[in-house]
UniProtKB/TrEMBL annotation:
Organism: Salvia splendens (Scarlet sage)
Enzyme kind, highest EC tier: transferase
Source organism, top-level taxon: Eukaryota
Entry GO terms, CC: cytosol; mitochondrion
Protein name: Phosphotransferase
InterPro entries noted in UniProt: ATPase_NBD, Hexokinase, Hexokinase_C, Hexokinase_N
Residues covered by the Hexokinase N-terminal domain: 12-210
Coiled-coil boundaries: none
Every Hexokinase C-terminal domain range: 217-455
Length: 461
């Protein structure tokens, strides 16, 4: 070949740059625990914001009545109706609807966005099914899952710090998003109020906890990533609570911003530099669904450019950022055919190239390398949270059954990623403690979780 370097040598360097041996994972877990402590001590003292959720009572199973959940966190917004029947009836019935946010509303005014949401909610409330019973004269209560950076001020108020994920709505930043929604519901003539404002990981934790008292941590691995956990109030210096306050709350770690000790490559650095938030969300950029495919694309692009992996010219589509998506690399890794036909057809569709078997093998190896690093680092992050909790309460976490509730499309749909995550957790904890730590999928807990938190924070006794 006429190229200066071989694809094999780029691959070898990638392997060593992405390596996650046990000592490195230990350091990552340790740094995560240390950053959590720093963030609990004072605001602004750590990469981890360690945001107070103001949730001071977790669902018990006794919750009763009709509640709503509203979820705004990305390109879709979801409404849900939940009929709770106490310990006996549990979740009697649920119903939900999903509405895409029209693109122009992402650039509209705050009133326009919230009026749209309230109008869809009004439509949903109108068509109540037979199993749902609201008590006459009572205001309907809503748990509002809002997955943007909010400075929470109470269980039912929080000021938007910054829109993210492509939203550029004017007039919301600096305002209480609960007031925005309550006012819009008023304009629609809806007799409804927000009883709980929750982050999606906090909702996921509450939702999973409803079914299992041993749930202590919730992690979301989807387009982005975040984690929350149950913390003792006495362990939160920045809360300035009386020493004897007692009780527990949920902390939203915002762990996507973690950055210490991660094995990063030149491809990560270039992707970060080209991103809308350079230098931020480094852990998220290494482990979450939005980015894994893009990291692989950057590696393949380099292999095409410097090592003619796909022939003499660089496929045009391969030059386009985010053209290769995480579900694509997942599908390619699943290809068990002898000549990797699926890999071939995805490369053709996405990059516009005809590939030889040798190249396809390299592509699969790159996918595996990036997914393995992501899964193992996510596992190390989870162990960091558990070690922080265990350090404050000897035996209370590692000495008994403890559940980590997992949610999000990446975790749900990428089996190799999931396996690497579990491997790292098991390696870090060792065989004995691992028996007590259950990392398990808990699907769509966050919707029910928000409704449950509306119930536990109801204005009606
Ligand atoms: P979000 O995080 O956007 O609220 P999800 O939890 O459903 O929503 O996660 C969606 C993300 O999950 C996608 O952006 C993608 O990165 C990832 N994902 C979805 N399907 C797959 C798949 N088959 N394999 C790997 N990743 C997937």
């Amino acid at each position: 070949s006429s190229s200066a370097v071989s694809a094999a040598s780029i691959l070898t360097k990638l392997h060593s740059d992405c390596a996650t041996p046990l000592p490195l994972l230990r350091q990552v877990a340790h740094a995560m625990a240390a950053d959590m402590r720093a963030g609990l001590a004072a605001d602004g003292a750590s990469d981890l914001k360690m945001i107070l959720s103001f949730v001071d009572s977790l669902p018990t199973g006794d919750e009763n009545g009709l509640y709503y959940a509203l979820d705004l966190g990305g390109t879709n917004f979801r409404v849900m109706r939940v009929q709770l029947g106490g310990k006996e009836g549990r979740v009697v019935a649920t119903e939900f609807d999903q509405v895409p946010i029209p693109h122009e509303l992402m650039f509209a005014t705050s009133e326009e966005l919230f009026d749209f949401i309230a109008s869809k909610l009004a439509k949903f409330v109108e068509k109540e099914g037979g199993k749902f019973e609201s008590r006459p004269g009572r205001t309907r209560e809503v748990g509002f899952t809002f997955s943007f950076a909010v400075k929470q001020t109470s269980i039912n108020s929080g000021v938007l710090i910054k829109w993210t994920k492509g939203f550029a709505v004017s007039g919301t930043e600096g305002r209480d998003v609960v007031a925005c929604l309550n006012e819009a519901m008023g304009r629609q003539g809806l007799n409804m109020r927000v009883s709980a404002l929750v982050n999606d990981t906090v909702g996921a934790l509450a939702g999973a906890r409803y079914w299992d008292d041993n749930v202590m941590v919730a992690v979301i691995l989807g387009t982005g990533t975040n984690a929350s956990y149950v913390e003792r109030v006495d362990n939160i210096p920045k809360l300035h609570a009386p020493k004897s306050a007692g009780g527990s709350t949920i902390i939203n770690t915002e762990w996507g911003a973690f950055s210490r000790g991660l094995p990063l490559t030149e491809f990560d650095r270039e992707m970060d530099a080209a991103s809308i938030n350079p230098g931020q969300q480094i852990f998220e950029k290494t482990i979450s669904g939005m980015y894994l495919g893009e990291i692989v694309r950057r590696v393949l692009h380099r292999m095409a450019k410097d090592a003619t992996l796909f022939g003499d010219s660089i496929p045009e589509k391969l030059q386009m950022p985010f053209s290769l998506r995480t579900p694509d690399i997942c599908t390619m890794q699943q290809d068990s055919s002898k000549d990797l036909e699926v890999v071939g057809s995805i490369l053709y569709d996405v990059a516009g190239v005809n590939s030889k078997l040798e190249s396809r093998k390299i592509v699969v190896d790159v996918c595996e390398t990036i997914a393995k690093r992501g899964g193992r680092l996510a596992g190390a992050g989870i162990v960091g949270i558990l070690q922080k909790m265990e350090g404050d309460s000897k035996g209370a976490v590692f000495g008994k059954r403890t559940v980590v509730a997992m949610d999000g499309g990446l975790y749900e749909h990428y089996p190799e990623y999931r396996r690497h995550l579990q491997d790292a957790v098991t390696e870090l904890l060792g065989p004995e403690i691992s028996k007590n730590i259950i990392v398990q999928h808990s699907k769509d807990g966050s919707g029910i979780g928000a409704a449950l938190l509306a119930a536990t924070n109801s204005i009606y006794p």
